[in-house]
Amino acid sequence: MFIKREGINELLHGAVDMHVHAYPEIHFDCELRLTDLETLQMAKDYGMRGIVFKSHMWPTMASVYQMQQRISGIEAYPSIALNVSSGGINAWAVESAAEQGARVVWMPTWSTKNDIRNGGFYKHMQEVLHRTTDFKEEDGLYILDEHGKVTQNVREVIEIVKQYDLPLFTGHLSPPESLALMRACNEMGLKKVVMDHPDSYSIRATQEQVEEMARLGGFIEFVALGTLPAQQRIHPRKIAEIIKRVGADHVILDTDCFFDYPCPAPEMLRMLVASLLHFGITPEEIIQMVRTNPYYLLNIPQDAPMPAENPQP
Ligand SMILES: [Zn+2]
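Above are the sequence and the zinc ion SMILES. Below is the predicted complex in structure-token form.
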């Protein structure tokens, strides 16, 4: 079946990309295809509602605030990743970020024990952070105690995330840690939990672990980056299969746009959407994954009008 171009474009209307890396990320030498503002402008041209900007190093509230002064008709949402550079798994860091408008909290990525063990993103950090020379697997962040329960600092973070009604993404935790986190969130009443890209090199979750996460009420994130030529971690056909198994109401689609080799984020999202349609995902399921679920996670009313265009002074 051929899907008409206008039909695909329409599916991006009102979409939110919940995972785009902001510049500077890691190092000034780590170039991106577009500036963040150019990415926002393109997303606006594609009819999207907004983008969550992420950094592996720092919270993005300040840069998002500045960007939002310079563009209207599109929303930018800031976030914090709880890596050691931002204070680690620490309730102070989360509350401070939330008070400045952070809309997403990511568990740590490159500074987790799991990422270091799997030679994941940590290897990129070694090119720029000299301290990583002495930072070993046992120094990496890990969220479970000897009984397999989440540690007290994690419970404090969950409590604050719940208070501010934010979504908690699992970052680069191992699948068993993510499942334990999900269980703790269920116990404590935090409903918005998202397992980040289960196909990533640092995570490699099994199909059973992904399905268990969804059964426990979590969302699964699939990112366009993992399907690109330079990565090919997962085939879109496989993503489509998993969506059919866990249900589109448990999945979000975004890009993880990063590095200099991908096309710009809105086009990445478009490619992912078109590929999934090709492998049998319905337009209704796409809307659920790029719009309905992100709106729920970000507390955007489902019938919210599109962001207003401010006349230029
Ligand atoms: Zn990312």
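Residues 19, 21, 54, 256, 258 surround zinc ion (CB under 6 Å).
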